[in-house]
């Protein structure tokens, strides 16, 4: 499907595709990106043929892009990881994790990043499909309390603390089914909770910069980020 659609950019998470798939995508002149959480993963991405590497810091919201979820995680922050990769890689580095405003983008660029990637910053935008419970949590004190958990999907991911993460805190990682079994079960749990008028069982992904979220139209937010960067 990707080869047929020929998007300008394809970005990979959780590791790298096979060599034949990378070769096929490059033949279509598609720009390839891959997330890395440490230097070893980043070097593997460059060796495999990625055009640029996304330096995903530990503070990033959503799924942690570790290649092996059971291996030791150095938990490198965005700025430290970005600087390490800029100094050691021959391809552009994109900083991701905890960046919410123009000042954050500027900091990443000053460290040598070619660009910054923002995710949590756009959840509160009016165009986002986040439901009311998610939005309310993001714009409340809950934004100050994110947690890395496997409970929601079976893979480590950072989200807002809620009833789901509280439930998961009493379960060891070994007891949680692997992805996507846990993720499908989590969606079923959230649906059942909503039907019973219980909130707090959704996957409320958010990075540590969540308290800086702004409820604006996406176009206005992008313009504001550009103004702040200047």
In helices, the fraction of residues equals 25-40%
Number of helices, counting only DSSP H or I runs of 4 residues or more: 9
Unreliable residue stretches: none
Strand content: 5-15%
**Biggest β-sheet: count, sense, barrel?**
5 strands, parallel
The end-to-end span amounts to: 39 Å
Please, what is the average pLDDT? 96
Side by side, the strands of the main sheet go: 1-2-3-5-6
Q: What CATH architecture of the largest domain would you give?
A: Alpha-Beta Barrel
Examine the coordinates and then state which fold CATH places here, giving the name of the CATH topology of the largest domain.
TIM Barrel
Number of strands: 8
The top level CATH class name of the largest domain: Alpha Beta
- CATH superfamily membership of the largest domain: Aldolase class I
Question: Tags for this entry?
Answer:
TIM Barrel; single chain; 9 helices; globular; 5-stranded parallel sheet
Q: Could you explain the architecture of this structure?
A:
The chain folds into two domains: 2-118, Aldolase class I (TIM Barrel), CATH 3.20.20; 132-210, no CATH class. The model has no long low-confidence stretch (mean pLDDT 96). With 230 residues, it is α/β, with parallel strands linked by helices. The strands form two sheets. A five-stranded parallel beta sheet has the order 1-2-3-5-6. Strands 4-8-7 form a three-stranded antiparallel beta sheet, with no helix packed on it. It is built from nine helices and eight strands. The protein is globular and about 50 Å long. Strand 5, helix 5 and strand 6 (115-117) form a beta-alpha-beta unit. Helix content is 36%, strand content 14%.
